[in-house]
Structure formats: structure tokens, C-alpha cells
Amino acid sequence: MNTPSAARFAVVGEALVDVVATGDGQTRELPGGSPANVAVGLARLGNAATLLTQIGTDARGDLLRHHLAANGVTIHQAATAELPTSSAHTHVDPDGQPHYRFDVQWQVDAVSTPDDVTHAHFGSLGAFLEPGATAVRTWLGRAGVLASFDPNCRPALMGPPHVARHRVEELVAAAGIVKASDQDLAWLYPDTSIEDVAARWLAAGPALVVVTQGADGAFATTASATIRTDAPRVRVADSVGAGDAFMAALLDGLHRYHILEHQALAHAVPQTLHAVLTRSAAAAAITCTRPGADPPTLAELDPFLHDAARWIPSAVDRSP
């Protein structure tokens, strides 16, 4: 894999503080928000990342600004002072799965794209909560670059599945790359297999659709192939931010293989996509080994990826 010049990513969506319940009945406050996590993950892998978001001027906002700056993420847009910084109250169950209760403000009136951006990423609450969601959709129509979308479904804030499904499908059709979890798809399409949903989404316009499956790995589908990878074996602390780490590594890997472009993705060699998918699964696994949304750096990811003891053989399935 060649090492190209760093990409310039624009990520749009919420930054918030995760208020996490600990086992002793206390709480701790950690930086979070799916788009913010993706921006941090991209920056830690050596890319220029700008986060178009909303952050208040309160103490939680200070926590987020310090975290983003310390990780090399540029904030392009912020909230007015009277709006509080968003938060998510997070409870992690005994299996390491997070459950959320949200207090989110998304009052962005307009979104402008920074100069020299090579890729745009959007999703999560910022793509669904009004009035900011309308600004995101308007921005998407004029961003002028390939965009990736992760619905990162939060049923408590997205309404019933049939309502959310309509909006998700509009955004899928506008994106070149779509990533979702099997849990997202089970909620949106309870009577349809995840493979059938991925095929349906691919037919709507994206060049690449990726579905993560937790401990069962992930698969990706394009017009020419379906590719699967396993998840490496790790001791899980929790899965907070794992999907965001996967998303960041996916975009970084596609860029490093020079296929972060619609036509290149549609006709990418299966072995190349398999390598990118496996690298993304490794990034997610590393994040699962430590509490909170803490994606890996490049110096952490590459040695982990080449630790053969963590992996079992994976298949590359070529379409006829």
C-alpha cells in the first residue's frame, strides 16, 4: 500500500459529551458524538480533518474543544453562546454494549464546506434532527465532493422505523459510500436480511455499501463483488465508538489505496477492498479494548493489523 499525501476530510454532525455511568454509581464525562469521533479517528490516522459542528461555550464545550484541538481536528463552525453543549447519558451493559439517553441541540442554520476538501462525511443525529438536518441535506447537494454516510441509528431520537427509513434512503441515494451496522439495519428493516438491504442500498446509487456485524466481522458490496472480513479477537472493555473508528479507518484506507472516488470504488479489486475492510475491523477492535470512544493512531493500528494470532482466515467472494 502506497502512502499518498494526507486527505482533507470535512465531517459534519454533532459533537457531544458522553456522561458514562461507572460501576460504582458515579459518572465520568468523555468527549463523543459519532461525527466528532470519526473526525478524531481520521486525524489520528494522519489526515487533515475539519469538523463542522455545534458546540456551546459552557464547560462541556470547553472539554470538546480541547479534545478536538489536542487530536488535530479543526472546528469549522460552532454554536452561539446561549445553546448548551449536547450530551448523551450512556449506560454500558455487562456485554459491553452501550445504551443512550440524549440531550441534543442541533440548531445549525447553514453549513459551508472548507476549502480544498477531498471528501465529506456525514450522518448520525446531525443528519436527522431538525432544524440542522435540513442544513446538512442542503450542504450535501452542493458539497461537490464524494460523500460518505453512516446513519448510526438512534431510535429514541429518530421516530418510528418507517419514518426514519424514508429519510435514510434519501441520504443513501445521495452518498457515494454508506456504512451501517447490522443493528441499524435490523431496526430499519426488521423483515429483511442485511444482505438484501445492502443490495437494495447499492442499487440506489452508492458505489460501496459496508455493513458491520460486531464480533462477526463486516462485509462490503460493490457492483462487482461482495467482500467479507472477520473481527480480530480482543478482550472487550466496551464498544463505544467502535463503529466510528471503523468508519474513519475505512475512509483512510480507501484513500491510501487511491480508490476514494466513485468509479474507482465501483471497480476496485476485491483483494484491495478486503485489505481496507480488515484494517477497518482492526481499528474497531482496538477501540473496543479501552473505555469510551478512543480510536487508534496509525502507530497503534499497523502493528495490531499484522498480529496474525488475532485473526482467522477470511473469504473473498467474487460476484459472477
Write structural notes for this entry:
The chain is built from eleven helices and 14 strands. By secondary structure, the chain is of the alpha/beta class. The protein has a single domain (8-318), classed as UDP-N-acetylmuramoyl-L-alanine:D-glutamate ligase (3-Layer(aba) Sandwich), CATH 3.40.1190. Helix 8 packs antiparallel against helix 10 (270-288). The longest helix has 19 residues, at 270-288. It is globular, with a radius of gyration of 18 Å. The two termini are 27 Å apart.
Q: What structural class do the secondary elements suggest?
A: alpha/beta
Number of helices: 11
Strands in their spatial order, largest beta sheet: 5-4-1-8-9-10-11-12-13-14
Per DSSP E runs of 2 or more residues, the count of β-strands stands at: 14
Order of helices and strands: EEEHEHEEEEHEHHEHHEEEHHHHE
Q: Which percent band covers the strand fraction?
A: 15-25%
CATH-assigned homologous superfamily: Ribokinase
User: Segments where pLDDT lies below 50 for 5+ residues?
Assistant: 313-320
Residues in helix, %: 25-40%
